From TrEMBL:
GO MF, any single term: kynurenine-oxoglutarate transaminase activity
Protein name: Aminotransferase, class I/classII
Family: Belongs to the class-I pyridoxal-phosphate-dependent aminotransferase family.
Organism: Corchorus capsularis
PANTHER family assigned: AMINOTRANSFERASE, CLASSES I AND II FAMILY PROTEIN, EXPRESSED, FI04487P
Keywords: Aminotransferase, Pyridoxal phosphate, Transferase
C-alpha cells in the first residue's frame, strides 16, 4: 500500500517531537506544551451549544447570523466594511479557513512569503497546493522584521504573504511600522496577504492588535482568517472563518463545501452567543492571560532564563535557553520531562528558513536549537504545580540541575 501513497502524503511523517509527546505521556508530565486551555470554556456559550443540540440544530447548516455578527465586529474593531452576504466563509476552524484560502489562490509554482519562525501548518498547506514557501527570518531576540530582507523575498512569482499576529510561537505583535512595510511590499508586487488573527483578543501591556486589512490599499488584497478557538477556549469546536473580497470569499466557500460541507451546526449556533459577548469578557480574557504571562516569565527567570522578549500577545512564551545550558532544545525538553515532569515544546519545529540546516548543525550552534515554547494557556492550578516542579530542580547551589 505504501507505494501507492501520494508524494505529498509521504512527506508528512510524524515529527521527531512525537517521541517527546510519548515520553511526556509515559511520565504523566504537566503539559505546558499544547496550545489549548485546560480550563473550562465560558458556561453561557457551552449552554448555548447544548441548547442548540436539544433544539435539533444537528444537520448540515450555514448560520448566516455569524457572518452578520462578524461584519459588525470588523467595522467596530478595524473600521472595515464587510458585506456579510458575500465576503465571509464560515469554516472548520482557522486551520480549514487557511487551507481553503491557500487552495483558492495558489497554483503550482507560486511563491508564498512566510515569517520564520512560524506556526507549523502553513507550510504543509502551501506545499499541498504546489506552492513554494519562501521564509523571511525575524531577528532575535526581539523578532524584529528587517524591511530590506522582506523586500528582497518578493519577486514576480510571489502570490501571497502570510502574517500571523499576535504571533505563535514568539508572542510578537507586529508594530504599525512593520505592518506598513508588509503592506508596501504587497502593493508594490501586487500580492495577496493571508492573515492569521486567532490571537486578536489576546494582547498585553496596552498593545493593540491591528488587522493588516485595515491599512490603505490592503482590504482588497487580504484574506483574514480567524476563529472562536482561542478567544473562547473552544479549540475542539472547529468554528472559524475567512473574510475576503467577494471573489476570494466565494472560492473559499466553494472549497469548504466540497471538503467538509459545513462547520458543526450546534457550535455555529453557539458562536452567535460567543461573538455577542460583552466588552468585559474580552477585557477579563486579556487581564487573565497577562497575569499568566507574568507568572510564566517569573517561573523561567527563577530557573536561570533571561527573558529577553516578553510576549506582547498570544499565550506562548518563546524562551532562549540560558547561556550556561549546554543542552540543545530537544535535549532540554527531554531532561525537563524526566527530571521535573513538565513538558514544553522544543523551538526548532517552528523554524524553517535556512532549511538546508541539517540536524547536526541544528544541534551544535544555530539559534534555532536554543529555544523552548511554553504554553501558559493553563489553569492557575496547573501553572502552580509546574512552578513547584521547576522549583524542585534547584540545587543547593542555587542553580538548576538541568543546565549542565
Ligand atoms: C497561530 C495559530 N493559528 C491557528 C491555530 C489553529 O486555530 P483553529 O483551532 O481555529 O484551527 C493555532 C492553534 O494553535 C495557532 O497557534
Amino acid at each position: 500500500m505504501e507505494e501507492k501513497l501520494s508524494s505529498v502524503a509521504k512527506k508528512f511523517t510524524p515529527s521527531p517531537i512525537q517521541e517527546l509527546s510519548d515520553l511526556a505521556q509515559r511520565c504523566n508530565a504537566i503539559n505546558l506544551a499544547e496550545g489549548f486551555p485546560d480550563f473550562p470554556a465560558p458556561s453561557c456559550i457551552k449552554n448555548a451549544a447544548v441548547s442548540a443540540i436539544n433544539s435539533d440544530f444537528n444537520q448540515y447548516r450555514h448560520v448566516q447570523g455569524i457572518c452578520d455578527e462578524l461584519a459588525l465586529i470588523m467595522k467596530r474593531m478595524y473600521g472595515l466594511n464587510v458585506d456579510p452576504l458575500t465576503d465571509i466563509a464560515i469554516c472548520c476552524g482557522q486551520t480549514e479557513a487557511f487551507a481553503s484560502a491557500i487552495f483558492a489562490i495558489i497554483d503550482r509554482g507560486d511563491e508564498v512569503v512566510l515569517f520564520d519562525p512560524c506556526f507549523e501548518t502553513y507550510e504543509a498547506c502551501i506545499t499541498m497546493a504546489g506552492g513554494i514557501p519562501v521564509y523571511v527570518a525575524l531577528d532575535p531576540p526581539q523578532w524584529t522584521l528587517d524591511p530590506d530582507k522582506l523586500m528582497r523575498s518578493f519577486n514576480s512569482r510571489t502570490k501571497a504573504i502570510v502574517l500571523n499576529s499576535p504571533h505563535n510561537p514568539t508572542g510578537k505583535v507586529f508594530s504599525i511600522a512593520e505592518l506598513e512595510v508588509i503592506a508596501e511590499a504587497c502593493c508594490k508586487w501586487d500580492c495577496l496577504a493571508i492573515t492569521d488573527e486567532v490571537y486578536e483578543y489576546i494582547t498585553f501591556d496596552n498593545q493593540k492588535h491591528v488587522s493588516l486589512a485595515s491599512l490603505p490599499g490592503m482590504q482588497e488584497r487580504t484574506i483574514i482568517t480567524s476563529s472562536l478557538s482561542k478567544t473562547f477556549s473552544v479549540t475542539g469546536w472547529r468554528i472559524g472563518w475567512a473574510i475576503a473580497p467577494p471573489s476570494a470569499a466565494s472560492a473559499i466557500r466553494n472549497i469548504h463545501v466540497k471538503i467538509t460541507d459545513s462547520a458543526p451546526a450546534p457550535f455555529q449556533e453557539a458562536a452567535l452567543t460567543a461573538l455577542r459577548s460583552p466588552a468585559e469578557y474580552f477585557e477579563t480574557l486579556r487581564a487573565e492571560y497577562q497575569s499568566k504571562r507574568d507568572f510564566a516569565v517569573e517561573l523561567l527567570t527563577s530557573v536561570g532564563f533571561q527573558i529577553q522578549f516578553k510576549p506582547q500577545g498570544s499565550f506562548f512564551l518563546f524562551a532562549e535557553l540560558p547561556k550556561n545550558c549546554l543542552l540543545s532544545d530537544v535535549e532540554y525538553v527531554k531532561e525537563l520531562i524526566k527530571q521535573a515532569g513538565v513538558v514544553v515544546v522544543p523551538g526548532r519545529g517552528f523554524f524553517h528558513g535556512e532549511s538546508s540546516l541539517d540536524q547536526s548543525s541544528k544541534e551544535c550552534c544555530s539559534y534555532q536549537s536554543r529555544y523552548i515554547r511554553v504554553a501558559f494557556c493553563k489553569s492557575n492550578a496547573t501553572l502552580t504545580a509546574a512552578a513547584r516542579k521547576f522549583g524542585e530542580l534547584m540545587n543547593a547551589t542555587g542553580y538548576p540541575r538541568l543546565h549542565f
